[in-house]
Amino acid sequence: ICYESEDSFYIKPIQSKWAQISGIEDGTYTFECKIPANKMTDVIKAQICYSDNVKGSYIEYSIKQYTDYILTHRESFDESVVSSIEALVNFGGYAQIYSDHNTDNLVNAELNKPLDNTQVVISDEYKTVRTVNSDIISIKSASLSLSELIKINIKFALDDNADINDYKFTVDGKTVIPVKSGDYYIVTADGISPDNYDKMYLFKAESKLDSTDYASIKYSCFTYVRSILKGNYDIKLTNMMKALYFYNKEIENYIQTMEEN
Question: DSSP code of 77?
Fold first, then answer.
């Protein structure tokens, strides 16, 4: 088996696109715009476009405007809300630094929460767990990618004489379609919300003809963070991983507080 944790954290750019109406209330329309972590200072223009191609009113807004409001009115919000917003802002700022995006306008510039000397220890419960019972399929690597939400990508390799159609791929038991990339097949767990950064997902490739012929790996965002923090990686990536860790912890605290109330 060949396995390596890639020094890669891909960030997807924002593109102009149509927004779907997610709700109508009191004669108003609600639209959703998903924004990557490194784009929090970007000003997004939302505009109504009618069926006759006439463009209506619009609004320009950014995540930073929203977070600035909460942080300047923190006395009006629960402490768990403020802490989670601070963690979000710090993650966004370090994502900007890592991706070299709009670094003259960092979303966390006024937060004063540096992470260079902050120690984060990820426990062994988040170690990679690999099980390979096959001479045909193996696990090549694991990586994270960040678009609107984080994705875990697991790269499988098949023997040259193997037929991909003879294998099924699953994430936590749910069948998924692998994406071919060169000589490899990538299986993705996507749409991972911040409260699930510490969830261990089970990725598995199994023969349809023989269930004893398989390769599996248990992996989480924290598994990736752990590998980065234990290695000798660029400080920009290391700090972003620390910020991701703290974001998860503050979101979990926020959710617990809301449930208790």
Answer: S
Q: What is the CA radius of gyration of the chain?
A: 21
Angle, to 10 degrees, between the axis of helix 221-230 and the axis of helix 235-260? 140
Taking the C-alpha atoms of residue 95 and residue 38, their distance in angstroms, rounded to an integer, is 5
Give CA–CA dist 230/42, Å, rounded: 33
Which tens digit of pLDDT belongs to each residue from 210-224?
Answer: 999 999 999 999 999
Q: pLDDT value at position 21?
A: 60
- Cβ contact 218:200 at 8 Å: yes
Q: Answer positive or negative: Cα dihedral of 166, 170, 176, 179.
A: negative
CA-wise closest residue to 228 among 120, 90, 132: 120
Q: CA-based angle 2:154:101, to the nearest 5?
A: 115
Task: Identify the bridge partners of residue 129 per DSSP, sorted by sequence position.
Answer: 218
In the DSSP assignment, the letter for residue 104 is G
Going from the C-alpha of 118 to that of each of 33, 121, 190, 246, the distances in angstroms are 33, 10, 29, 11
Strand-pair partners of 203: 171, 217
Determine which helix (DSSP H) or strand (DSSP E) holds 24, and give its type and residue range: strand 21-25
The DSSP-derived string for 213-229 is SEEEEEE-HHHHHHHHH
Element at 187 (helix H, strand E): strand 184-192
pTM, two decimal places: 0.87
Matching residue, tokens 């992996």: 219
Q: Distance (Å, rounded) from C-alpha 177 to C-alpha 205? A: 11
Per the CB < 8 A criterion, the answer to whether 84 and 95 are in contact is no
